[in-house]
Structures are given as structure tokens and as C-alpha cells.
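Provenance

Sequences were taken from public entries as deposited. Structures were produced by running a predictor on each sequence independently, with no templates supplied. The record for Methyltransferase type 11 from Streptomyces kanasensis is shown for reference.
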Amino acid sequence: MTESRAEAGRDAVHHPWFARFYARLSVRAETGAGVGPLRRELLDGLSGRVVEIGAGNGLNFPHYPAAVSEVVAVEPERVLRRLAVEAGLRAGVPVDVVPGAAEALPVRSEAFDAAVASLVLCSVRDVRRSLAEVWRVLKPGGELRFLEHGRARGRVAPVVQRGLDLTVWPRLFGGCHTARDPLDAIAAAGFEIVAFRRLRLPDRGVPLPSSPCVLGVARRPYASGGGA
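Predicted structure for Methyltransferase type 11:
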């Protein structure tokens, strides 16, 4: 770990009200919205060293398979980070929770077999830079597992999403943006999209702008390039 990177990212994000709200909502969503099974699917088959960006309150931790030798979980928000530390102590694999921002991951280059991004690319300040950092820390051939919400398809819904992103949504929900396209961003960063499927989180009859999601696997190619 590079200490200067860790210190720089320690309080890069501070949304204490949203963090407490998210911590309660996310726990309920594990069963109520079926997110728990999606996390298991997201992490199935992983092995070796894994870096998780924007680990939140650590809800992925129970789902890491035993073949994972270490998880370095990067979380910039201090309230969520404290909860993640507690979750890491209960995990079945070694978890090291560290402060840091996705745009400057406090870890060595090409040190990880896989990276995990779940419901985080919506809220990073710079998607392009964050994915370049994921590229940097992955070994060539390493996987990026992602579960992200993003831009809806159709004519009306994307317009609504863009309007919300320009007004109240990011302010109310910890910097979250609903109209970003994670698949396009991952491909533009140079990753090879291996597989993906689109889904919608249950919205209890109310079409939430954050309901459209994509779950998939991308890979850092062995050839040079990308990470721009």
C-alpha cells in the first residue's frame, strides 16, 4: 500500500446522512429486492486476491468463495467503512478494509487476480479514471466482476434519468447518478466484456430510476493498451 494514496482518499467522500440511510436500506434489499442472490452470482468462482472498490457496508463479504485468499476492500465513506470493518471480521475469507477513492486506489499495480464493482460506478466522481485504476491494479487477464445500475432503455426513461441527475438525485443519494452507462464505460476503458445480463431490481410497483441493472464479467486483456 502507498500511504500517500491512502491518506489522500481517506475522507474523499463524506455523506454521513446518506451512509446511514443506505446501510439500513441495503440490508433490507438483500432479501426484499433479491440483491443477496445477485451478490452470490457476482462473486461465484472467484479465487486469489481480489480488490473491491466502494465496498460500502460490506454486504458482499459473506458471499466470497473460499478460494479467495484475500479481499482488499476500498471504501471512502467513514460511516460505511466502519460497518465494513465489522462485516469483514465476520467474513469467511480474509478481508482488509482500507480508506481510499476509486480514482486513486491505495494498492500496487497488477497485484490482483480480480476486481469487484457493485453499485458503485454510479457514484464515483470520475468513471473513466476509476476504471483506469481498476485496469492498473489488475493482473493481465484479471477479471472485473460488476453489478451496476445505469441508463434505462427506451425513449422516456433516459430523459427522466438525465433530468434527475442534473437536479436532486445526486444531492439526495450520496452522489449517485442514474443515467450513466456502465457497460459503455467498461468497454471504453479497454476491458473485454466477457458476459453480461440485464435485469431490474424489484421496485414494488414504483418504477425507480435506479432499477435497470447489469450484471457481468469483463477482463483486462493480456495485450497492452486500455486503462486510458
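The radius of gyration is 16 Å.
The chain has eight helices and seven strands.
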